[in-house]
Amino acid sequence: MVKFMMQKITDVCPKAETITSRTNPLVVVFSKLSQSKYRQQQSLFLAEGKKLSREAAALSEIRYILLRSTDGTADSEMLSIASKAPSRARVIVLPPQVFEKISTENAPEGIITVLSPITRLHSVVSSPDTSAFDALKGQRIIAVDSVQDPGNLGTIIRTAAAFGYSRILLGGCADIYHPKTVRASMGALFRMSIDVCTSLVENLSALQKGGRRVLAAALSDSNLVLGKDKILSDDCVVIGNEGHGVCAEILSLADNVIRIPMRDGTESLNAAGAAAVLMWEYYRTFD
After folding, report:
1. pTM assigned to the model
2. Rounded to 10 degrees, what is the CA torsion of 126, 128, 134, 140?
3. CA nearest neighbour of 281 among 192, 164, 185
């Protein structure tokens, strides 16, 4: 186990501020960022722990770095992360009782980054025309329809990054900045291009007009079977809601349905599991 030395925070971050009150206005704002309406209102979200803070450190979207400390010191790894943040990011030192008011973790590591939405990667898309996807020819895209569990969504984002996907289209899904989504993505959220679609159907239709095949992942008697039937490198597979699957409108739009073969008596995989199997098959086949 690696042990990190404790260092005085102001030796590494001379402009670090200290807040000791749980009722400080900034603390109140940060403590509400676990709720969607306040994330939208403040245009901020949290990334907790060393792993996520390290991944976020180079991003210009970092606004604050919060460090837990009782004596003005922190371990050298956390201070190294803080020192690599953009110069405009404010470093704020908080005693444990204040830090824990903000944290959404059961066992917080002692560092939280507060960021603005990553607009260079994450876009809100309404009605794109076919040309909007021209730059993505030859790149892999997956679509996600109404996945409501933020942990599932974060896992899908993480898996897409691992298997070489360039873009994710989301329709009616959990908030990508929900703390559980951010945590489950394990930093992939900071690297993946994600379109939050006001109409996933219209985006999928634009992909089809551009020559891509749209496949809905679902159980059906008449469909493609993963690992048996031919798949194409530029297919866009749609992953459906945990309970109801892909919506009827997208099933009607899809060029075909693709099924993951499973043993008899197994009803289905959960959304993140199904997405992982499908993305792995495309990665295995074409990379």
Report:
1. 0.94
2. 40
3. 164
Task: Report yes or no on 1 lying in a domain.
Answer: no
Our measurement of the distance from residue 154's CA atom to the centroid of its chain's CA atoms, rounded to an integer in Å, reads 5
Neighbours of 42 (CB within 10 A): 15
Statement: residue 164 has pLDDT above 80: yes
CA dihedral of residues 190, 193, 199, 203 (deg, nearest 10): -170
**DSSP states of 20-33:** --TT-HHHHHHHTT
Q: What is the pLDDT of residue 287?
A: 87
Residue with tokens 């603005």: 116
Own/partner pairs, 36-45, CB within 8 angstroms, 24+ separation: 36/175, 36/178, 39/175, 39/177, 43/116, 43/117, 44/114, 44/115, 44/116, 45/114, 45/115, 45/117, 45/177, 45/179, 45/182
Residues 135, 99 share a domain: no
Distances (CA, A) of 223 to 105, 255, 286: 43, 10, 21
- How many other CB atoms sit within 10 Å of the CB of residue 106? 5
pLDDT at 2: 56
Question: In CATH, what number is assigned to the domain containing residue 256?
Answer: 3.40.1280.10
- Is 65 part of any domain? yes
> Which domain-ending residue is among 115, 135, 158?
115
Query: Any residues with CB less than 8 A from the CB of 247 and at least 6 apart, and which?
Result: 145, 146, 240, 241
CA distance 174 to 172: 7
What b/e sequence results for 149-162 when a residue is b if at least 16 CB atoms lie within 10 Å of its CB, and e otherwise? bbbbbbbbbbbbbe
* CA–CA gap between residue 235 and residue 220 (Å, rounded): 19
- Helix 150-162, helix 271-286: angle, nearest 10: 10
pLDDT of 131 reads 76
